[in-house]
Task: structure prediction
Amino acid sequence: MASTTKSHDLNSHLWDTSALYRDAVQQLDEAARVMNLDLNIAERLKVPKRAMIVSVPIRLDNGKIKVFEGYRVQHNMTLGPGKGGIRFHPEVNLSEVAGLAMLMTFKCSLTGLPLGGAKGGVRVDPNQLSRQEHQALMRRYTTEINTIIGPDKDIPAPDVGTDAQHMAWMMDTFSQERGFTIPGVVTGKPIEVGGSLGRAESTGRGVIYTVQHAAKLLADRGEAGPKIDSTTTVSVHGYGKVGAVAATEVHQLGCKVLAASDYLGGVYNKNGLNIPKLNEWVARNKTVVGFPEAEPMSNADLLALKVDVLIPAAIDGVITMENVHKVQAKIIAEGANGPISTDAMKVLEDKGVFIIPDVLCNAGGVIVSYFEWVQGLQNFFWNEAMVNEKLAEVLAMAFKRVADVQTRYKCGMKTAALISGVERLNKAMLLRGLFP
Result:
């Protein structure tokens, strides 16, 4: 008995080295407690089904060989093939990837998709790589994990530090090894090789759909909350693939985006940033810093700015107990995965801040990835209007489901979102049973 316990403790330690993973487990524990989840199901959901650590050696442009460390974690496949992005980032590690895979499991279940949760990454600073080095890294990484991915096994997508071009390289590498073209092995591909219209904008667009639902919900409940119009102020932390699209969408609705930032710094205009011009600046300069029609602002000051809607769309762990008391937003839309620590989340909820949790708020990407996967299997592609219509429909149903659970259990939105996802998983796992 002592040996078994010791082994279990060691296995647990393997995963819990990152704050993101610990937060994900803590949030699962809270949801399990509130919903009175079967303890055996809760235990199984705390650890991934499968994890792979690979060495990724490539030849750099200077002729030297450098070995990077890569990961692919499949958290739970009860509902279908694994689904989750691949990130290139200097702080990627096994524990973080495991935590992100767990969130993907809940996200896919919550939105009703027939997919499981997975995630991958390579520990590298993508800004230090040339285009050729990016290609070599993605192709070699694909080769190393090719035994556990596939259109009916696990379907990667872009994430932090990767984009549609990386997915094209990944699809081509996987296809070359099989001897024929297999577009369905990844999503988030360029349109020309089987991608879906609307996929690139889907996560940011979905963030704003959920912000609109949040504003309407607060109004329907008679609670103080912003209207989504010219009086609404917004700040965006992380002006990248998600944040820039979210800013563009909310600007088109007439709202004032007062501030935007990236890893180099931020910009601020009390009258609202000219988002189309900011987008042009970023396209040329690869950063918001230096935008001439704004004042400089630090990332820390942006998070503390008094606005109606704050969209943290960069990375995890940007709002913690160290800075949570400075946050003044009325609504926080988690465009990134895990941008608010669990302890900070409780402080914000006690202050009356309405939080749209990541597994709901940024689910637009995986929803349209699912659409892309389905279109590829059918070899029948939809127009962008149809993609956006279906995205809005799925998110509306998911938001209502979470809001209803919040009312039923009288809990926070984050807990309600996890309960919504875990309820479906619980039923499926109990029906499938445990083999052997």
Remarks:
- Residues 1-10 have pLDDT under 50 and may be disordered.
- The domain at 200-361 is CATH 3.40.50.720 (Rossmann fold).
- The chain has two domains: 2-182, 200-361.
